## 1
Amino acid sequence: MKRHERALAAAVMLGLCLASAAAQPPPTPVPPAGSQTSPPAESPGPATAHFLLAHDSKDGGARIITGVMKPFDVYLVAERLGTQHQMAAVAFRLDVPEGLIVVGEELLVESLLGLGNSHDGLNLAFRCVDNPRVRVLRFRMAATRVLPAASIRLLPDTRTGFLGVIACKDENYDKIACPQESLAVTVHP
């Protein structure tokens, strides 16, 4: 498959995934009166996933403590819970408080298509991965001033209102919403 055909296929897949959020579920058929029905088959439960804003620290804490103009890295990690681990896309918006700046971004997966940017909202389709935890992006950040209690947050994309991951073909490209995530940052002089 040629490169432009892969990009077109990824765009169609991402569009279908995002459009499915607005689609209504099909009506449940009602059995005729007096008919026998068997109980529904057991399902493994709803698919679950979440994002992590991770960082490399010596203390392994849930807070970044740094100094003014000292760069640090924050990783966007997508994680699938349960028995299904496939992922093919993410959608999010990175909310960075005043006093912190993103000085660089590094994509850590094989991207097929990206729509938007991390500040306003990013829908990123990538080659399907079958891992329960995937580092998707690395953000290099720095503080421009002292911040005693700041927070970097992951929020829904502004265009689609979706925050989550998209499964791969084995799960029919299901959308799996994720809760909002944040990472505390303290900046000393």
Note: Residues 3-19 form the longest helix (17 residues).
## 2
Amino acid sequence: MNILHDFFEIPTENHLSISLHEILYQNEKILWQGKPTGKHLVQDSEKITTGISFIIYFVGEMILLYKLLFTAFSLSNFLFFFFWTFWTYLGTYGIFHLQYICRKRTRYLVTSCRVILLYGNRYVEYTYGKLNYLVLKTWNDGIGTIYFKEPPVLFERMGVRKIILDEHTTELAAIYDAEAVYQLIKEARAKWRSKEQKSRLNFVKSEVGH
């Protein structure tokens, strides 16, 4: 049993290709599909918290290293230094390394009636009828993130599970040609809602006619 994989629900390579026939509706068309890039792992709201964490961990690491090198050897000091080093890695670089690994196992679909976020053998969907929040954030290199819920602000997205789960349930994270995909979703949503409104009007007319 791989505790890390079980805890964070990281799918293996064998679980990457969920059958689209199992989740796509009849006559549903795929308009775009893509994957998140490995860039822009750190959100703006996390730069301050990551910097503060790094300073705290670095100072603690230097103190422990000094005690380890310039004082009498102590097993407790050695073990404390080892575990502190591990948490330093996990609390700074490790979280985003894990995030990068998870992104490689993620796929996004924009279809004629919804947006689908595939992660291994699981998926989250946003149907156009309920997709009210749609915000795009881009960087200078053309990569951008499309949010389906209000993005986190300072200190809101902390912790490994929170960072990983947010990316796989609430956004198209760090995709190429984000502006074009954003416009595609807006157009598909408008078209779907227009068609839905017409069908409702036709239903009302038919009811009145009877």
Note: The chain has one domain: 30-209.
